[in-house]
Amino acid sequence: MPIYHKQGELPPKRHTQFRKPNGELYSEQLFGTIGFDGMSSLLYHHNRPTMVKEILKSTDVSPKIALEKNIRSLKLVSFNAPAKDDFLEAREPLLVNSDIIIGVAAPRKSLRDYFYKNTDADEMLFIHKGTGTLRTIFGQIPFEYGDYLIIPRGTIYQIDFNTEDNRILYAESFSPIYTPKRYRNWFGQLLEHSPFCERDYKLPQNLETFIDTNEHLMKVKKQGVMHEMVYIGHPFDVVGWDGYNFPYGFSIHNFEPITGRIHQPPPVHQTFETNAFVICSFVPRLYDYHRLSIPAPYNHSNIDSDEMLYYVDGDFMSRNGVQPGNISLHPAGIPHGPHPGAAERSIGQKGSEELAVMIDTFKPLMVTENALKLDDGDYYQSWL
Ligand SMILES: [Fe+2]
């Protein structure tokens, strides 16, 4: 997150003595990515953040691949994924490669029994249904329908839901998730042509500081294995932090669409980037206004990337028979385009209310066993 933010109490100079009211030193921690080259924050803990008491058990949670090499277009009915009480057990990994795990989750209950830390991946949680608060070592981020939550790898967090009917699209990214570089100047500030700006971000607030020396359970995901560890001292014991590396939220409803006289290509919808995939937001917008324009997209050969589209809401103009929560996968290697009748249907229309999230990966996606359970079976023939 190329923006400076801070919460709580800090010493005036980094790496200097910072003492508790009783005279003991606070424990300083550098929390960075990409070695010492990426973004980082400095945190001040009441306890040492290193007090591992026990490692209880380690469970392989890597996705079960059903189709390693796929050329079939798929439609997955993600709302058929079962709701489960636990935040992590609810996760259904669907489409994966060595850069990303894309999945859905319908967790019913708040995560309060343990703390969670993903050391493999930055996480993107897109909130389709439900409201609540992401509670992290950096502070709280309230969320609602349409929010992207970007959680850098290593962030310790819990999550509170106000609701039982929660639906989340998630991505675990093995490289950092950034805003697109072309939207930013050389200092990192978002430029005037960017579809959103710093004011749209939901930054961590209301830093919670708990001081105890009790035992606390933490689930740490590393190399596809979930390690259950007992720490001494409450993980949310930070009295202050500052820097550039922290979780934040951004609402898809704050993405300002870029429109034109003729059809605009998918990059105008780009919201986030990594070195392995992009995330795009399709939001309600005016259609192309050339007198002979065709608002529906042209057929295209996405020869270099697999395209996954998650339909959130509205009437999706280029597709027949898609519902909220449906996922389409258009794999690289074969062209795809509007469904029969969609191009004609789009002519003369003034705008769209469609809302969707697209993830395009540069490497092909493998299909998991979980995904095949949600597959509608005959989508690949729906252009006939
Ligand atoms: Fe496409």
UniProtKB/TrEMBL annotation:
One of its GO terms (biological process) is tyrosine metabolic process. Fe cation binds at H300, D306, H336. Homogentisate binds at H336. Its cofactor is Fe cation. Pfam families: HgmA_C (PF04209), HgmA_N (PF20510). GO terms for molecular function: homogentisate 1,2-dioxygenase activity; metal ion binding. Keywords: Dioxygenase, Iron, Metal-binding, Oxidoreductase. InterPro entries: HgmA_C, HgmA_N, Homogentis_dOase, RmlC-like_jellyroll, RmlC_Cupin_sf. The active site is at H263. SUPFAM superfamilies: RmlC-like cupins (SSF51182). GO terms for cellular component: cytoplasm. Residues 20-250 form the Homogentisate 1,2-dioxygenase N-terminal domain. Residues 277-383 form the Homogentisate 1,2-dioxygenase C-terminal domain. Gene3D superfamilies: Jelly Rolls (2.60.120.10). PANTHER family: HOMOGENTISATE 1,2-DIOXYGENASE (PTHR11056:SF0). Belongs to the homogentisate dioxygenase family. This is Homogentisate 1,2-dioxygenase. It comes from Maribacter orientalis. The lineage of its organism: Bacteria, Pseudomonadati, Bacteroidota, Flavobacteriia, Flavobacteriales.
